[in-house]
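hey can u check if this looks right to u? its 406 residues, i copy pasted from the old doc so theres a chance i mangled smth
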Amino acid sequence: MGRAMETSLPLSQSPTAAGNTNPDLSSLRVALFSGNYNYVRDGANQALNRLVGYLLRQGASVRIYSPVVEKPAFPATGDMVNVPALPVPGRSEYRIPIALGHKARHDLEAFAPNIVHVSSPDVAGHRAVSWARERNLPVLASVHTRFDTYPRYYNLAWIEPMLTAVLRRFYRRCDALVAPSESMAQVLRDQRMNYDISLWSRGVDRTIFHPGQRDLAWRRSHGIADEDVVIGFLGRLVMEKGLDVFADTIDELVERGFAHKVLVIGEGPARAWFEARLPNAAFVGFQGGADLGRAVASMDVLFNPSITETFGNVTLEAMACRVPVVAAEATGSESLVVDHVNGRLIRPGAVHSFAEALRTYVTDADLRRRHGEAGEKRSLDFAWDRINQAVAETYLRLIRQKQKHR
């Protein structure tokens, strides 16, 4: 079993972070199931680690059941128990939990949770839901990505209805769902995934993401002049992030003669493909902590064409850095970007419209400034402790509801 370790993720400096505990939350015993808690860094597991850190600071007990690897991307927050998993075909950096496993089952019985939280609809998640239902324990599911949209990026769009049906069966066996944005929550309601759906939004660490992180010397070190207007991409370099749409849009800007630079932040299996499509872009690889804040603040506009996010952490991080955002009109972005106020929302895949929106920012410094300032102001609404308290209160509500019906 992995021992609790201090996460490298900074925690917000609130009274609760200083050591005060909430007596109601100290009664919680949370069994959290994750298909990827810390072996590959992404927005979903960053949020889960922050949640666990918050719960532990409130005196709650938490156990995480997830695949454990020899060299994870970052230290885990909390105690981990390994579940059996296999590498994903063609994406070996990811692992698919294939069972709950005897060790995890014995640990669950000994830990005796009073609520189960599942964060991915994999086999271990299904088994965890069954385990909880057999014991009349409440189950909360958190939705972190649009799994139903993934097949279209691999020429498998025909299986989307089947995948949606499988997800519906999984989520309906849970007592409630939390989604990171109101737009995603509405999609889940429309798909009839569950009838108890509330928000678990996302926060932004303003010690890392703020306009003061902008660094012209760092830009110059990557071949970007002070007067260059930088269009940035931030995220894992995989096709489902809309890399093809991004590249096609940049091609159109180049053809139309609008001078700009492209900055790509991130790593992933599609990096070679993306570099071949954008030969003049500055690829700076993975950035973390203050380095990431510096890279984001050094953009002039973020271009996020992805439709798979349920929230869009990268969008919020750019907003906190006073960077306007051009994004696909999709779940997540719709809850953060106010069209023509702090960025632009464009129909997914509409390359010409994306190019036109980017053109306005490339050619209008005053517009960039005004929309960037509006985005920074909106980002102030997203504080991590308040957001995670909402999840904890959902745990308590579900426990009370179960107790009433026993």
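The first strand starts at residue 29 and ends at 33.
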